[in-house]
Amino acid sequence: MPIVLGLLSAIGLIAALLADGAGDVLSWVALAIPVAAAVWYGLVGRRQ
Description:
mainly alpha, 83% helix, elongated
């Protein structure tokens, strides 16, 4: 799972630097998924 989050982050950063339009959407989604996963783990992971 950490490899997938790292790849998503890299794809999001590259798309943000190189693309416009749909690339901006791709970068937002690709960078939001690792953040959402960290927030979810922070909230749910502590309860267990």
